[in-house]
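Journal club side-thread
Mid-discussion, someone asked how the predicted structure for our own chain would compare to the paper's figures. Pasting it here so we can look after the session.
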Amino acid sequence: MTQINFGGVMEDVVTAEEFTLEKAREVLKNEVIAVIGYGVQGPGQSMNLRDNGFNVIVGQSPKFPADWDHAVKDGWVPGKTLFDIEEAARKGTIIMMLVSDAGQKAIWPLIQQCLSPGDALYFSHGFSIVYKEQTGVIPPGDVDVILVAPKGSGTTVRTNFLEGSGINSSYAVFQDATGNAEERTKAVGIAIGSGYLFPTTFEKEVHSDLVGERGVLMGALAGVMEAQYDILRRKGHSPSEAFNETVEELTQSLIRLVGQNGMDWMYANCSTTAQRGALDWRKRFREAVAPVFEDLYQSVVEGEETRIVLEANSAPDYKEKLDKELAEMRHSEMWQAGAAVRALRPENRRQK
């Protein structure tokens, strides 16, 4: 463990310098890692494991041909490294549950039958375990139950790995049946290419993740963008001007600098006009949205968000409803303007 000062709070983290890839290989040398699901997180984590030299196989239902074909395209060989879910789960000693949360509920009765004493049941999200009353996912007492949760999309897990940077991940042990659960967890975290690992619990991971998705990372971000774009348009600004001031400048310039240097650096290195206005309005926005975040956190902790997700995803017409919602966003003036702005970026013009 390495102690790091996070704004005055000391935290222990695990880095690849102290828990090396060679150590991970030693810990996992007798393991068969079965990645169940080749949708969002499955491709990135499984290919990183393969490239790092671990014994990994993929379990994917042929009933979803797009995901099965995706796995084949990525080099997984049917009958050798690519199997249906049941066969992969029986072959694996670490079973990585990387299907969707609703999918985990659906396949749990099958996975449960495939577990052997001493196996590890791995998650990248605390959802199924924490909300077991709704999911029915209750592991037997003779298996390790572990978590590594990359703090980014499955695509980023792969691209960061290929760039050599890795992606930060949290890790947790819910159940240590073998006495080796923590070592297994850290080893898998390093094996999938984490930049560093920080400890959490299944409960804290799912609470923070559900709040983050609905909040700053996606829900709040989209809502605030829409609100600003709409007010600029109502006040007579053109679609190009409204979109550039709302989205393009943020995503193509400012957020990259914030990621590299921090928000205080961003404030210190902008015009005094922007600096003063941003500092003054920051607190007003914080006060305005704080009650919404309080409501959101309570909804997550009480299981209401989980209920909504499971109910929506189990509906037979969910895909059709989702397509309609996304089409409404895609065809809105704001994101049509966005498509036009993206097409005008120099790199896209050069491709034509």
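Post-session note: The CA atoms of residues 211 and 297 lie 6 Å apart.
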